[in-house]
Design brief:
It is flat, with a radius of gyration of 15 Å. The chain contains two helices and no strands. By secondary structure, it is mostly helical. The chain starts with a helix and ends with a helix.
Length: 60
Amino acid sequence: MYPAMEELYQYFVGHPNPRHWPEELQDSPVLGHGQYAFSEGLRLGFLLAVECMGPELLRP
């Protein structure tokens, strides 16, 4: 993995933490952490898209 990607991953996702996983995935750490990492990445992508296209979206 690229150093910048590793840094961003550790900052936004970090180490597995069962506190962030849905109840139904508490006993499946790989799936729980995978779903959490995916949702955080998707959230970050949406935030970046809105930040980049915000003025375009608000134009009449």
